[in-house]
Amino acid sequence: MKKSFLCLSLILMMCLSFAACGTSQSKEKADETAALETTQAPVKEKVFKTSDERFQITANEDWSDAKDVLDIEDATLSIAKNAEGYIALISENKYNFSEKLSGYNKMVVKNMGKNIDEEKTSKSQEMKLGSYNAYKTMIAGKIDDVDQVYQIYCAEINDRYVQLVCWSLEGNQKKLTEEFDKIAQTLSPVKD
Known about the structure:
Blueprint: H1 2-22, H2 27-39, E1 45-49, E2 55-60, E3 64-65, E4 77-81, E5 85-93, H3 101-113, E6 117-121, E7 125-129, E8 132-143, E9 146-157, E10 160-169, H4 170-185, E11 188-189
Antiparallel strand pairs: 1-2, 2-11, 3-4, 4-5, 5-10, 6-8, 7-8, 8-9, 9-10
Keywords: Signal
Signal peptide: 1-19
Protein name: Lipoprotein
């Protein structure tokens, strides 16, 4: 378990560090982009299924498969929105853990926090993702001197614990928080 978190953290650090180098935009360019967004047609949604065909999430079509970018050993799904934000889904058999969902959530958050400098972790919120029990926790801090934010959802779905790890640079976090919440709410078993 620790190996997968370390691997996930290292890959996330590299991706977000690279993203930080290439995402600086002038105010003028940002204003042009905002003007275009308000005049464009609504974005279509698409369904992303895990490689093991167990789970799915729905996101706008501006999200794309990121398995070639995020080579995370335990992730059965990874998607990216350009270099602004990333989401990885990891599911594990809940019988491998003696804890209940709350204990599993604490373990995931603790392991993620170990790899972040100047780590600030919010209190975990109990919530529902669809009809499933879940927790949401925010972790902010620095990795390789780059400010990053993780929005972690841990859910119990049937016989699995599912982690939906969403992350972005601190500058993109406000813009993506609601989008991460919306995508997390679509998490469900694959529909036949």
